[in-house]
Every structure is written in C-alpha cells, then in structure tokens.
Amino acid sequence: MTAPDLAALAHDIKLWAAELGFDQVGITDTDLAAHEPLLADWLEKGYHGEMEYMARHGMMRTRPQELLPGTLRVISVRMNYLPEQAAIARVLSDPDKGYISRYALGRDYHKVLRGRLKKLADRIAEQAQELVARPFVDSAPILERPLAAKAGIGWVGKHSLLLNRQQGSFFFLGELLVNLPLPVDAPVEEGCGKCVACITTCPTGAIVAPYVVDARRCISYLTIELDGPIPEPLRPLLGNRIYGCDDCQLICPWNRFADASREPDFAARDDLHAPELLALFAWSEAHFLKMTEGSPIRRIGHRRWLRNIAVALGNAPASEQIIQALEQKRETADELVREHIDWALAQQRQGLARADRKTERLIRVVDKGMPDHAR
Questions:
Q1: Total of domains in the chain
Q2: Residue tagged active-site, from 29, 94, 138, 185
Q3: Which of 300, 307, 363, 364 has the most C-beta neighbours closer than 10 Å?
Q4: How confident is the model at residue 358 (pLDDT cuts 50, 70, 90)?
Q5: CB under 8 Å to 39, separation ≥6 — which residues?
Q6: Is the residue at 237 inside a domain?
Q7: Domain that holds residue 165
C-alpha cells in the first residue's frame, strides 16, 4: 500500500472504531525501549506481589513485536465504562454496603472489547488483504498504558493509570497489533503537574512514588489478585471495599470531565450497584456463580468473595446481626475464610464492648445529675 493509501486507511480505521463503540483510537509504533529499565526495577523490588505472570515473560511486555512477529503498529482503543448514576459517594460512605469498583458492575470488559477489536480487524482486512492482526484486552504481556500514551489517547498519571483531558480515567483499553506501516499519532502533553492528590488519598499508601504503585499494598490487588490472607494491618484500611478500589481516580481533578458510558453492556447490575454486605455474605457458591455470570467478579471465586466481605463486615459498625452472620458462616468456611471471619468477629465484639462502656458512662453521668426522686 502507498503512503496515501495507508493514511486513508488510518482515517477509516478511526471511523470504523467509532461505529463499533470505541470512544477514541490512536496508532503508534512498537518502540517501548524506554520502559524496559522501569519495568525491570519494578519487578526487582517485588512490587508485583504474587502476580507471577508479570515477571514470567521477561521484557516481552515492552516488545509487542514478539507477541506477533511482523507487528509494525499498535492500534490502541479506549471505551468509557462509568455507569449512569454511579452512586460512588453514597456507597463508599455507607459502611453497611459493599463497594465494588465501578468497572466491574457490568459485563466482563475483556469479552466486550475483544469482540469489537476482532470486528475492527475484519473491516481492515477487507481493505488490506495482507493484514495480519491480533487483538489484546488486558490478556497478554503488553504494556497497554504506555502504548496508549504513545498513541495519543492520554498520558500515564501519577497513579499509573491513563488519563485523558476530556474523559479522565474511567475507561478500558485494548490493542490491535497489525503488520501495516500506518501513520502514527502524536502523544499528548502530560497534565498532572504538581498535583499529588492520588498519592495522598490512597487508603493504604500503595502509590509509593509518582507513577510507581506497590501492588502488595493496593486494595485492587488485595481484593482481586491476592489468593491468600489479606495482611492484617491493611484490613482496617479496606473499609467496605470488597472488589477493587477507585479512590485514586475519584480524587483526580480530571475525572470531573468523565462521561457516562454509552455501552449497554457496562450498565450496573442492580444486585451489585449498592449491595448490603450481609446480603452478599449470605450468597452460596452456586448463587455467587449465577449472579456473577458474565462478570469480571467471577474470576476471584466464591472463597475470596467471602474473605473480602468478612473484612468489610469487620470494619462495619458493630451489631449483633453481623456477629450472628459471621458465626453462622464460620461453621462451613474453609481455613482462609475462617481466619478473616475470626478477625471480623474480634473487631465486632470490640466495637460492641466499646459501645456498652460508652452507654454505661452515659448512664452514670445522667444518674449523677438527676434528683433523688427521679431515679
């Protein structure tokens, strides 16, 4: 194909992508050499925790051409996911409800974006028979955020997420690797400036330096990726977050401009939007699988689901109802869940004891001030 042909094709690709529901498209080359020492240092410090897959492929993450030999360009796409009426503040401020990261309230994004990227590849192949393409959606060793930044989708913020001036960060990313020398887009100017709001607001201090996240402290890692016990010192900091965390995004000034998603598949499911913790804790494994069918939440399994909710119940206001639910679930729980239930029970009982002592003090103060005939 000639240079004008490739330029026209790149223009058409962006039109087709918009028709498929993508909110933005950019094209970049495969050169991520500048990120190799950063990735190596991050892995060497163990910031990936138990995510062994992050180190399994060495520096392949910075070399897209090794994923698909012959790759010359990466078509990077984004799709907004913030649901209408996200109710973020309302749920986070109610300790009896469970907070689920807003990206996980609808259908599994992997399936949605991958299907659309395959359709985009089919459209391109109609115009370029020599096309060799492969789609990826958070499913392969590839540094999608630096690629998206090079493609002009946004810039990598200090919380390590991609930021866009018009849409903040509430969006998914996907990539289509192609063997066509399409014209590339220019990166955009970084817009974080001196702002460190995401760093200071992180509940567990996981953003250890600008652009560097220690996953071992990140609530998203602790509630989703971590298979074993959540470190006890971090449990009180989780609050009512039972699947993921959005705090670093919520505080970001750029997210004032985030639009709700136009994609029906990302609409919030009623049972996950503002759920009561006790209701979720009562789900059997069969009910959990039914309610999370087609959802990214299913990947953590019922066991970790109960572990996370037990921690949230331990952080909830003390109540006999919660204690009763914890004790009942403990009878059938495995060792991992039982450990977190025991921690939650200790928190709840301490809370009730404090409430009793406060009531006793109040009674004594009132009694002391009352006349004898009124006692």
A1: 1
A2: 138
A3: 307
A4: low
A5: 59, 61, 62, 143
A6: no
A7: 1-83+104-227+246-269
pLDDT band at 107 (very low <50, low <70, confident <90, very high): very high
Q: b/e map of 126-150 (b: 16 or more CB within 10 Å)?
A: eebeeebbbbbbeebbbbbbbbbbb
In the numeric block, the tokens 């009674």 are attached to 363
pTM for the model: 0.91
φ, ψ for residue 80, nearest 5 deg:
-60, 145
- Domain contains 259: yes
**247 catalytic residue (yes or no):** no
Section 105-122 average pLDDT: 96
Six-digit token string for 113: 């974006």
Residue 9 has pLDDT above 90, yes or no: yes
Residue 248 confidence class, pLDDT cut points 50, 70, 90? very high
Residue 340 located in a structural domain: no
- Residue ranges for the binding site for [4Fe-4S] cluster? 192, 195, 198, 202, 218, 245, 248, 252
Does residue 208 lie within any of the structural domains?
yes
